[in-house]
Amino acid sequence: MDGDFVATFKADGVIASTPTGSTAYGLSAGGPIVHPSIDCVIITPICPHALTQKPIVVPGDQTIRIVLKERVDDVWVTIDGQVGQPLQIGDRIEVERSPNRVLLVRNPAIAYFGILRQKLRWGER
Known about the structure:
Elements (H helix, E strand, L loop, with lengths): L12 E5 L4 H7 L11 E7 L9 E4 L4 E4 L8 E2 L7 E2 L5 E4 L16 H9 L5
Antiparallel strand pairs: 1-2, 2-3, 4-7, 5-6
């Protein structure tokens, strides 16, 4: 992260998501729910091969570099569900904030946690 070594993940994959994307694929892989007002990126290992490998939440203005270190068959990068591209040993993925902003439309009558309660069925018996 920004040139500093953080960790080596042995996992089926790694998800990098924004808070808006954290409640989709990242949540199903064991990642946290992050309020959309928080400026961060969530790094979530998919089915890590060690109990100590957990999701990491990092500042949104950092550049995150993910490097494929070992030879593995069938490694792909897929961005937001688009057609994947194969990776080779030594390939790196850099995740950084775009200078372009996306404006999302929100219904002011429905609060963020109300949406979560509905979608995740919190409080149902």
